[in-house]
Amino acid sequence: MSAALFEVEDLTLSFAGVRALDGVDFTIDEGELFAVIGPNGAGKSTLFNCISGIYRPESGSIKFGGRQLLGSAPHRIASAGIARTFQNVDVFPAMTVEECLLLARHQHLRSGPVASMVRWGRSAREERAALRKVTEVADRLGLGGLLQSTVGTLPHGIQKRVELARSLCMEPRLLLLDEPVAGMNHEETAEMAATLSEVNSDLGVTMLLVEHDMSMVMGISHRVCVLDFGRRIALDTPANVVRDEAVIDAYLGGAL
Ligand SMILES: Nc1ncnc2c1ncn2[C@@H]1O[C@H](COP(=O)(O)OP(=O)(O)O)[C@@H](O)[C@H]1O
Ligand SMILES: [Mg+2]
């Protein structure tokens, strides 16, 4: 019997008396594309921040590959194989796409965040391997022709792609995606959805996607967890979630 790759159990966290998360449970299987949705204030960002080690929940458990993650610092969680993207593009605007991806790759290879910045002593072989990985990821995400472009000059939708490429260069076992289509137009959203679906199925990267754009989530996710006021009100396939009474109520009569 295989255990789930990722397990969240009874996660609870309050801010000044407001229960941002209230006993949230779910598991994610290896290879799954799992989404968390919910109205504004439902607790999605709080959940995301608990998983990436920025917030410390009052109680509960977060296990990855059977190991307890709770209480680990963000860089330890990252080196355990969990990469995240940021809602606001977090790449350095003055770097080229290639530099940006190489930096992510080196951060992945070196244990500490400071050691990763040190360029001396790295073998030419390591450099070539890093460049190969970066080129492969860039090609897969349609960024192959943009490696020498300065990130800050690229359109927002492309910068979001660079952000995704950055996280993939770390070869994560679990990828946390925070609103990957925020601020994108319809066409960019459709392209990003297709890319995420491809990365999930072709590379086998397990994904936890937190998203506001319902149609996007429903189109690509295997299962969807719905939060409302910090509580899990549904956990099912997209087809069942859209028909769920509690979900429809939470979204005020069918914004889904
Ligand atoms: N740092 C914080 N300090 C105080 N309250 C917070 C903080 N972060 C979130 N909250 C509150 O927790 C609840 C859940 O917020 P959040 O996780 O941001 O929801 P979502 O991302 O689903 O919109 C909200 O009531 C919000 O006001
Ligand atoms: Mg949020």
Automatic annotation (TrEMBL):
For this UniProt entry, the molecular function terms from Gene Ontology, in alphabetical order, are: ATP binding; ATP hydrolysis activity
Q: Which UniProt keywords apply?
A: ATP-binding, Nucleotide-binding, Transport
ABC transporter domain location, by residue?
6-254
Q: Which residues form a coiled coil?
A: none
The keyword Transport is assigned to this record: yes
Gene Ontology cellular component terms for the protein in this record: plasma membrane
Output this protein's name: ABC transporter ATP-binding protein
